[in-house]
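User: We ran a pulldown and think these components assemble together. Before we commit to crystallization trials, I'd like a predicted model of the whole complex to look at. Sequences follow.
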Amino acid sequence: MKFEFDNNYPIHMQLVKYILFYISNGTLKPNEKLPSVRELAEIAGVNHNTIQKALNEVEDLGLIYTNRTNGKYVTENQDLIKKFKENMINEKIDQFLKEMKKIGIEKLKLEIKTTESEEVKTYEYSKD
Amino acid sequence: MKFEFDNNYPIHMQLVKYILFYISNGTLKPNEKLPSVRELAEIAGVNHNTIQKALNEVEDLGLIYTNRTNGKYVTENQDLIKKFKENMINEKIDQFLKEMKKIGIEKLKLEIKTTESEEVKTYEYSKD
Amino acid sequence: MKFEFDNNYPIHMQLVKYILFYISNGTLKPNEKLPSVRELAEIAGVNHNTIQKALNEVEDLGLIYTNRTNGKYVTENQDLIKKFKENMINEKIDQFLKEMKKIGIEKLKLEIKTTESEEVKTYEYSKD
Amino acid sequence: MKFEFDNNYPIHMQLVKYILFYISNGTLKPNEKLPSVRELAEIAGVNHNTIQKALNEVEDLGLIYTNRTNGKYVTENQDLIKKFKENMINEKIDQFLKEMKKIGIEKLKLEIKTTESEEVKTYEYSKD
DNA sequence: GTGGTCTAGACCACT
DNA sequence: GTGGTCTAGACCACC
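Assistant: Here's a predicted model for the assembly, 512 residues in total across the polymer chains.
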């Protein structure tokens, strides 16, 4: 797990995105115990309060849960994780396509197959 | 020219991106006069100082120049603009592909045709 | 550190020059923490935004860096500072000699020894 | 006669300095007729009002005079010119020495002989 | 308390 | 009316 921050963007938000990302791609597996807040703070090189804030937001989303005496764990609800992953992918694709349009691309075709489904999704765009 | 802002990100940076987009996609043409700083401020709904800051950054990049009591103009250096656009596109594509890989996409194919060249560039990725 | 301003010249530019001087002559040492932006504003008797602008310019030159919630520091790259200082000195000397020539000085001899080198540089000029 | 301007400094002031400079070094000779305001405006690439303003300031200093129907002339008072020239030279030297000190020069020696006097002036500075 | 951002409003030089 | 500068004052993220 690596964290690199853009100082012009709220760090806790970037942390949330990283955690979601690591849960989505399986770096953090269902039911896995997260490193302690202090540890994460060290890994990420930020204050532990900032980590707390981020983890709370992820917990609100339902993707991790707290075992009071024992630390924080990734949810075992794989469907929820899957949904979040799909969401994330769709958002990234949408944003990419939007930006490519704005930048003045003439023609674009994108085919994507995720691990979760058999279907290949196709996105096309042409200037006219 | 439209501007919409994400309040979690410094506005002057978002402005810079917008201007770069508008120069890249030809909304702002080489040698064209920009709306006055105050006008842009009104269009974008921000303070004129914020516009100043953003335009200064774009000027530092060499894409616009200032005619002191006369206004600001897009550079007439079309090569520079072209290079900039290509750079921007390549960066966005690279970043997109990198993220898609990391998120665990199984298969991906991307075809892109820019206005500048006849060539269609193809990017492919498969998990194995 | 003292600051005196000529009101016919943008203050932020004069500030930049002051900071460069202070870094060049060792008033501000490599890796030293600068006074806070607000403090400098008070010392210099200007608005903190003006200080910000000036320090940003110095940062663009690579001579200071920002530790976001911690303050601003002089670069530890002593070579860069040295190079900068030499450049500055050479420019000022060249400009001075050029002006003295143009103004019609008959004869001029200048000897300079910097802290950095043992060598004494000599510049001479005679009208004929 | 050439004019190059630093846009960050009031242009009429720079013009005044240029004119004084050209009178000092004999580019503009005593009793010589100046180019017309319009001509100067074109040469300098600035608005004629700006030239007017500058020439008025020089006239206030007594170095040029206006012959109502006939244009503007350099004064024939050579002593006055000489005095101004010496003044200018001294100012430039002082400023140069001051800056060299501020920049942290260790040792400096400057000898200057002007056309006007037999004397060689010597300036010396040492850090300690 | 650190840097960073933004606004509103004022004033300046130059055309 | 153009760009540029500056101030005062406010608010934010992070430590």
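The helical segments of chain B are 11-24, 37-44, 48-60, 78-103. That may be worth checking against your pulldown data before setting up trials.

User: Thanks, that helps.
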